[in-house]
Design goal:
Protein name: Rx N-terminal domain-containing protein
Keywords: Repeat
Radius of gyration: 31 Å
Strand content: 15-25%
Number of strands: 31
Pfam family, one: LRR_14
GO biological process, one term: defense response
Organism: Eucalyptus grandis (Flooded gum)
Shape: globular
Structural class: alpha/beta
Number of helices: 12
Length: about 625
């Protein structure tokens, strides 16, 4: 639509995105910041010299009625947002005709329009008289369009975008015939049209680029005329729960780039030959989907088979040379194909599963040419066992590796962007977040992790050796929990960027290093470490302190340094309770009292919880 009006806003939109004044949200829609919206409205008012009848855009319903009543004001208006309520009906009834010759955008919201009101409206006039003339209308958005309302005298020849989301229209709706005059229609949005059982004959709309049928729960058939849509780029059939089959004619859609089938009841995706430009195929939550030929999808960039019944990926997946994102989590897939290693451009691989994925890791995955792979998510694959192939160290771009809840026993040397047992992770020079949870057989994590920001190590009961602490130059959040064989945490004294230190259930831990140099330490939590006797060092930046179940702990080496504390919780620490009676712990006691009385945590804490997610939620101070 931009190009047809010789508008090329790509650069300007990028500038606004960088300044967080706008963004592209779900459904390829523009979200605009309130400040930018208000600025635009001010510009409209100024250009109209603050005269309502001269405004090119009207967004207030009451003002719109005033503009329409001033007939000369109709000549200027280009964009309207209105409520289709009884007040507007009454206005229409009084008018012989309404001509808005410059109107390009019309958004209608139905309010207080039940069937009795709709029948009261003189639909015969609309059918027989040129009551409303919008010769240049480009976009019509009318959610909850009432099927009994006949709005057929609007001139729609230039219409490019039609949005009738959540309307009562059916496949028998009379309006389909009227819409055949819209030869330039680019976007048809029928999201949530719950009475639609079949798509209409769309052969008149050969220029259509986007067809959105998401959430049409009663849809059971896609009309074969869809094959005539040679320029269709997006077909969205998400959550059409009763749709079981796709027409063979779809293979004629030569320009299709996105096919979204999530949540449908399709059992098979045909072996189409014509979709040479298809880049995204999403079939998540297709619980009945068990067959997927991949040989003809060589252009795919993203494939999502999550929560499907696919049990096997054919070796023909190797033909998908452009694939960058593969999602198969919670599917019925039983093993990974060896051909997976031939996907040279794969960047993200998601296989997390509570299902059937099992067996040894195919060695091909490591020795492949997965040179661009950045993310591997394989958490909760509880039957996945054996060693990670040593060739994983060649994945020089790998940033995220998630293996929580697997039976992996050994991790070799990892790439420079991550890192060794897990493998040696020294090669993982770009790795920032490392989560290792529920790996009961893991005994060692080795490697230099120079870029690591977030380290999360939980329930690795056999783990004895931690990664080289001197490499943690950028670590900000460090959590270690329920690693029962860990006796010492070394190197903490050198972590100048550390902000959150969370230590839980280390039964053999006896000593903490001096924390004086952790100048940015904001929150410290120590729970159920029964052998720790002292917290050494000056903690001048500490604001949140949580200590629980540490029966041997009896002192801070420098309690007077705790001058910035804002929230304190201490419980089940009998020896420390005795020490707190000393005068030098006066500030700590005062803050502790205030924390107990108010049960409030600082706003900054909640911001951090939101930022870092589940590991921080377990900090324990909410109670």
């Amino acid at each position: 639509m931009w190009a047809s009006h010789k508008l090329f806003p790509k650069y300007s939109l990028e500038v606004l995105k960088r300044k967080s004044l706008m963004k592209i949200v779900q459904g390829n829609r523009l979200w605009v910041h309130d400040q930018l919206r208000d600025l635009g409205r001010d510009i409209v008012r100024q250009r109209a010299h603050f005269k309502l009848e001269k405004q090119s855009r009207v967004w207030d319903h009451e003002e719109l009625i005033d503009v329409l009543e001033i007939k000369e004001g109709r000549e200027n208006v280009e964009a309207i947002c209105l409520r289709f309520d009884r007040q507007f009906q009454d206005f229409i009834e009084k008018e012989e005709s309404i001509s808005l010759s410059k109107l390009r955008f019309l958004q209608v919201d139905c309010v207080d329009l039940d069937e009795s009101n709709g029948q009261h409206f003189p639909s015969t006039n609309l059918c027989q008289r040129n009551l409303i003339m919008l010769p240049n209308l480009l976009m019509l958005s009318w959610h909850n369009f009432p099927v009994y309302f006949k709005f057929i005298t609007i001139c729609l020849k230039k219409l490019m975008i039609l949005d009738l989301s959540r309307s009562e229209i059916t496949d028998e709706w009379e309006g389909w015939n009227h819409l055949k005059m819209t030869k330039n229609l680019k976007v048809l949005n029928l999201t949530g049209c719950g009475n639609l059982h079949r798509t209409p004959d769309l052969s008149a709309h050969e220029n259509l680029e986007q067809l959105i049928l998401q959430g049409c729960m009663e849809l059971v058939e896609v009309h074969g005329s869809i094959g005539r849509l040679k320029h269709l780029v997006l077909l969205n059939l998400k959550y059409c729960g009763k749709l079981q089959t796709l027409p063979d004619e779809m293979e004629e859609m030569e320009d299709l780039r996105e096919l979204l089938l999530d949540g449908t009841s399709v059992t098979k995706i045909p072996e189409w030959n014509g979709m040479e430009k298809l880049e995204t195929l999403s079939a998540a939550s297709c619980r009945l989907l068990s067959e997927l030929p991949l040989g003809n999808f060589g252009s795919l960039v993203e494939l999502d088979l999550s929560c499907s019944s696919i049990r096997e990926l054919p070796d023909s997946i190797e033909t998908m040379k452009n694939l960058r994102i593969l999602r198969i989590f919670d599917s019925m897939l039983e093993k990974l194909p060896s051909a997976l290693g031939k996907l040279e451009r794969l960047e993200e691989f998601y296989a997390s599963s509570y299902g059937c994925l099992s067996g040894e890791n195919p060695s091909e995955i490591g020795r492949l040419s997965l040179e661009k792979l950045e993310k591997i998510h394989a958490s909760s694959c509880r039957y996945l066992s054996g060693e990670i192939p040593s060739e994983i160290g060649k994945l020089s771009f790998l940033r995220i590796l998630t293996l929580s809840g697997t039976r992996i026993s050994n991790i070799p040397k990892l790439p420079e962007s991550l890192t060794e047992l897990l493998p040696n992770l020294t090669g993982l020079k770009k790795l920032q977040d490392l989560y290792i949870n529920d790996c009961p057989k893991l005994v060692e994590v080795r490697g230099q992790l120079e870029s690591l920001v977030y380290f999360d190590l939980v329930r690795c009961q056999s783990l004895e050796q931690l990664p080289d602490p001197l490499s943690f130059k950028h670590i900000q959040i460090y959590r270690i929990a329920s690693c029962w064989k860990v006796e010492e945490i070394q190197g903490l004294e050198a972590w100048e960027n550390l902000e959150w230190l969370l230590i839980y259930n280390l039964l053999l831990l006896q000593k903490l290093p001096d924390l004086t140099n952790t100048k940015n330490l904001y929150a410290f939590s120590l729970e159920h470490c029964p052998r720790v006797v002292e917290i050494p060092g000056r903690l001048e930046s500490l604001q949140i302190l949580n200590i629980s179940g540490c029966g041997s702990l009896h002192q801070f080496s420098d309690p007077l340094s705790l001058k910035n504390l804002e929230c304190v919780r201490i419980k089940e620490c009998e020896r420390l309770e005795e020490t707190l009676e000393s005068d030098e712990y006066g500030h700590l006691k005062k803050v502790r009292r205030a924390s107990l009385e108010s049960y409030q945590i600082s706003e900054e804490y909640y911001l951090e919880v939101k930022k870092w997610g589940e590991p921080i939620k377990n900090f324990g101070l909410e109670n």
